[in-house]
Design goal:
There is one protein chain. With 210 residues, the protein is of the alpha+beta class. 51% of the residues lie in helices and 9% in strands. It has a four-stranded mixed beta sheet with strand order 2-1-3-4. Helix 1 runs antiparallel to helix 5, helix 1 packs parallel to helix 6 and helix 2 packs across helix 5. The longest helix is centred in the middle third of the chain and has 18 residues. It is globular and about 50 Å long.
């Protein structure tokens, strides 16, 4: 079984550790400490993590996440590093790979690309293909709020339709970059956009992602 999620987990911890608890991230209003607390709550506190999807639970999520953010930073990083507890849904065999591979890749880039002098990460072919498959599977969900038709295209010509409609904006880039784009990190994603200028401008500033 592949272990992409485990690798991305450890890379994320390394990034969080290297920049410290007060560094910026691409997540609006979040420091690295806040991002670390989010990761821990998502895995370990299902009673609060529901607030990520259900507005009525957002207050509880904010409260619990704030409590974790107040913990010593090394403690937070160790909770991420050691992975979900066995009784967590994420502890079910195979769940970590399914649920966390993209999550940890994106959050790693949230940390990396918010720092001065960042350089793009070169992904191996196997991992890029994994990200492409995940991207294609979730494209319509992530692109549902696009103000126009949206097509994602790899440099080799493979495409995924994120939203049907006209005019159409085509976004071309490597899978990791396309994933960042369609998950709301348009300003940092290294991609090329084609289409009507007004439509391109609107897609560039739209609130994409789940």
């Amino acid at each position: 079984m592949s272990n992409h999620a485990r690798r991305e987990r450890l890379l994320l911890v390394d990034l969080l550790e290297s920049v410290g608890p007060d560094a910026p991230t691409l997540c609006k209003g979040w420091s690295t400490r806040d991002l670390a607390a989010h990761v821990v709550v998502r895995e370990r506190r299902p009673d609060a993590a529901g607030g990520l999807m259900i507005k009525q639970l957002a207050g509880r999520l904010a409260k619990v996440q704030g409590e974790y953010a107040a913990k010593p930073y090394p403690e937070l990083l160790e909770l991420i590093r050691t992975g979900p507890p066995r009784l967590s849904l994420f502890g079910i065999p195979g769940a970590d790979e399914i649920a966390n591979t993209v999550e940890f890749y994106v959050h790693g880039e949230d940390v990396r690309r918010a720092q001065d002098g960042w350089a793009p990460r070169v992904l191996d072919t196997d991992f890029a293909d994994v990200l492409w498959r995940r991207l294609a599977q979730s494209a319509s969900m992530n692109g549902r709020r696009s103000p126009s038709g949206l097509v994602l295209r790899r440099p080799d010509g493979q495409t995924a339709v994120a939203r049907k409609g006209a005019p159409v904006v085509t976004v071309t880039g490597e899978p990791g970059e396309l994933l960042l784009f369609v998950m709301g990190r348009q300003d940092q994603a290294q991609v090329e956009l084609e289409g009507d200028k007004e439509a391109v401008d609107k897609v560039q500033t739209a609130e994409l992602g789940m």
